[in-house]
Amino acid sequence: MSGEKEEKNDKAVDGDEFENIKEPEIEIEDAELNALPRNTSPDNVESATDNTKFELKHPVHPHSIVEKLEASEKDTFLTNNVLNGKDEINSRLEIENDGNVSEIIIEQEEDEMLYKVMDTPPFHLSLMYAFQQVLTPVAGNLTVSILVAEFVCASNDELMKAKLMCTTMFMGGLCTLLQSSIGIGLPLYQGPSSAYIVPLIAMKGIKEWSCDIDAGLFLNGTSNSTYQMRLEEKQLQNLQMLSGSLAIAGLIHTLMGAFGIIGYLLRLIGPVTVVPSITLIGLYIYKPATRFSETSWGIALSVLSLGLILSLYLANWESPFPAWSRNKGFRIVRTKIHKSFAILISILFGWSLCAILTTTDVFPNDPTSKQFQARTDARIDVLQNFNWFFFPYPFQFGLPTFSIGVFANYFLATIISILDSIGDYYACAKICRAPSPPIQAVNRGIFTEGFCSILGGFMGTGHATTTYGGNIGVIGMSKVASRRVFQILGLIFMFFGIIGKIGALFITLPYPVLGGVQLLSFGIFIGIVLSNLQYIDLNSTRNLAIIGMSLLIGLMIPYFVQRNPNALDVGKQQITSALKMVLSNPSFVGGMLALFLDNTIPGTLEERGITTWIPEINQSEEMNNKADFAEKKAIYSLEFLPKNIRKCFLFGKLPFLPEYTVRKGSI
Q: Among 610, 631, 649, which residue terminates a domain?
């Protein structure tokens, strides 16, 4: 330090002299000292250690600390402040034993969150951050809704697609609101899971799920109206079977969380089971992806290429982006926003290309041509005809029925969804700098997801919801982890579901754009699934044999069933139909075989990769005690409930409630 600075430090610091300290003298980097809040009193200071160090409950002005200090020896004080309403900083005051300030350093921690989980940003900022999160899962909502329509024979019924889209957005918003409020309590978006639908595409090859309507209906003058009535009847029949089967699978999902059997489940199902099961899902996604992309391969590949460039090739590049703050005004900042919104930017790019090619009539205006579906006005009538307001309600497509084949698929998807969600819980806590969720919170999160699956079945979505990793990535980029933002996000999606024109607008998305998005998103999805192989011993012949045989037989059996539909005839129609639907599902066949072999062939937990699933829960308590987190464990408690309810006898007995005590070694 210079002599001038040392002389300045010899003076007592009162309020006026502190404000006169200039930036060069105290080495404040990229911040103004006057931005520090001054509206709190020394009462915010409380003793933290025996060495007269203090922990501040609220940000205070440094001279308040000096007035409170008992002079003894040099102490370090920490306080968190927000500069310019944006940048999270650490300001450290070095206090000499005579009460003088020797040095003030303001630093910004790279991993500090702008808003933590329990923080409540101003409403206008919360709304802005929520809209930023809205943009990420839109493509997933649209893709899954279209896949449901494909399965229930509504591929050409745009009004049905719009209804499914609105219902999907409404349920996604409701589940997000429940999960962030009374579920696990972390900022998580609950969106539609493709794992529930994609395997059903493979079942379209058997007669029971075929969309072919009797051609004889076209032989009379009323064939068109009769055909339409039969088609609508088929759609409703299929949706009702999806609804009932999903509700039963959701009930099992709920019970798994309610009775805390997640730990036992993780001992049975590991990477050796999950990898072949979900890989077989991916191997069948090429069918709808090809159907959409073939309308214009050029547009589909352009969307795919731009998405790859933004998300992968330019992953480490920081693009210039305009920003404004009250103290600094307008300026250009460097950010990786292009990576966070790669899919959205790709959709807008492809949509714009299709609009240009539609206006110039490059795409034919002939509805019988495949390229007609690439036009932006191919389904414009749904935007005109669909109501402004659409209110999803239970049993809107009729009373649910049950199908053993659909249930078998949904049950397997439920297990996969649970495993995926547990991984997302811990990833979200880590990125938010929060303690790892205790097993009670994990159980409550799974319980909430299961309850939402039941609601999804009653509402007729045809799929359950699961956590979206993409929104967790946006938290890491924006440094905004406030669950209040995600509660507003849920309300926004519910609003979108009620405003029918919004759902109808998404349905007008040109097919090649949707095909390009599927190529990108499902390609990454399959890669993520295969990444689970890193947890198992790939030098083990046991593991390689199980995975290889599961993949091979998972492809062979459905192929055999489709070529020989009468081979499974046991004399009773219902049993025969159930066998056909179960054995024509490659994911179920391969997954069940892998589960059986992995739990019967001798192998250590480490060899099977199970040890990478269990320790996260077993050791989370110990890790939480050692680590320095920005949040407290209170984020996982239900503090909004009155104390007399939380002290109820049941709260200590139910595994998904905060007061439940986990027996050591039970997981």
A: 610
Range of the domain at 296: 123-610
Residue partners of 423: CB distance under 8 A and separation at least 6: none
How far apart, in whole angstroms, are the C-alpha atoms of residue 481 and residue 193? 23
> Residue 140 in contact with residue 176, Cβ under 8 Å?
no
In the predicted model, is pLDDT for residue 85 greater than 60?
Answer: no
Please indicate, yes or no, if residue 73 is contained in any of the structural domains: yes
Residue whose entry in the numeric block shows the structure tokens 């899919």: 343
| SS percent in the chain: helix, strand, coil, step 5 | 60, 10, 30
Q: What secondary structure does DSSP assign to 370-384, as a single string?
A: GGGGGSTTTTHHHHH
| pLDDT for position 662 | 57
CA angle, 531 then 535 then 538, to 5°: 90
- For residues 355 and 429, membership in a common domain is answered with yes
158 and 28 part of one domain: no
Any residues with CB less than 8 A from the CB of 441 and at least 6 apart, and which? Answer: 184, 185, 425, 636, 658
Q: Is the pLDDT of residue 645 over 60?
A: yes
pLDDT digits 0-9 by tens, 175-185: 999 999 989 98
Both 188 and 51 in one domain: the answer is no
The C-alpha atoms of residue 438 and residue 621 are separated, in whole angstroms, by 7
Q: Provide the phi-psi class of 119: left if phi over 0, else alpha when psi is between -120 and 50, else beta.
A: beta
Residue 662's Cα: distance from chain center in Å? 28
* Cβ proximity of 454 and 251 under 8 Å: yes
Q: Domain check: are 158 and 52 in the same one?
A: no
Report whether 412 contacts 189 (CB < 8 A). no
In a domain, 630, yes or no: no
**Comparing 39 with 659, which gets the higher pLDDT?**
659
Which tens digits make up the pLDDT trace of 568-627?
888 787 788 778 878 888 888 898 899 999 999 999 988 998 876 555 545 555 555 554
Q: At what angle do helices 342-359 and 138-151 cross, to 10 degrees?
A: 60
Last residue of a domain, one of 561, 591, 610: 610
The three-state secondary structure class of 99 is: coil
Q: Classify residue 216: in a domain, yes or no.
A: yes
Do 101 and 154 lie in one domain? The reply is: no
Q: Are 317 and 180 contained in the same domain?
A: yes
**Bridge partners of residue 83, in order along the sequence:** 87
Question: CA 569 → CA 436, 553, 576, 585, 629, distances in Å?
Answer: 51, 21, 5, 17, 60
When divided into structural domains, the chain yields a total of 2
Residues 33 and 149 in one domain: no
Encoded tokens for 53 = 């160090």
Q: Does the pLDDT value for residue 252 go beyond 90?
A: yes
Is residue 50 packed enough to be buried (19+ CB in 10 Å), middle (13-18) or exposed (0-12)? exposed
The answer to whether residue 650 is domain-embedded is: no
Residue 37 binned pLDDT confidence (cut-offs 50, 70, 90)? very low
**Nearest alpha carbon to residue 585 among 201, 299, 25, 293:** 201
pTM for the model: 0.72
pLDDT tens digits along 390-436: 999 999 999 999 988 788 888 888 888 887 788 788 888 888 888 88
Question: pLDDT digits over 340-358, tens only?
Answer: 678 778 889 999 999 999 9
Taking only the tens place, the pLDDT of each residue in 118-173 is 889 999 888 888 887 887 788 788 888 888 988 888 888 888 989 999 999 999 99
Our measurement of the distance from residue 163's CA atom to the centroid of its chain's CA atoms, rounded to an integer in Å, reads 23
| Residue 460 DSSP label | T
Residues contacting 261, CB < 8 A, separation 6+: none
- 80, 150: one domain: no
